[in-house]
Amino acid sequence: MTSTGLDAVNLSSAEQAAERLRACNASPRWVDQVLAHRPYADAASLLDVAEREARALPWAEVRRALDAHPRIGERATGASTEAQWSRREQSTVGTSDDRTQDVLRAGNAAYERRFGHVFLIRAAGRSAEEMVAELDRRLGNDESRERAEVTEQLAQITRLRLQTLLAG
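RE: above sequence
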């Protein structure tokens, strides 16, 4: 990770740094908490704080972050950094067969009916079939367990996106 990426968080104005951080996690509380710990001695310190703060978010803030995430299998639109990262993270879904995409669409609908929000999963490094299996498994969770899993997935996504930001 280059110092340029870390400098973008440490040395930018709070407004500029917040804009960059929102692409990693759209929770206003998370952005504020990460900014409050500036300056960071190194990338590892920033990543540790970012991940810890993501896992500590109250459910209302996790929901705010969820609102920025497209459904698995739906291509994020726009030119924002977050949309570009989302398209790259979900690239395996776009190359999956029609049956898998149909299963994902049906699973997303069932999940949203059950839990009232989009299914969030760290898509990077997972095949479409793995995401379908996780979706099926998580449909069996109770609300408390699912909230914990969503929060964990958000923390993982946050870390990956922050690593991308730091790499420039």
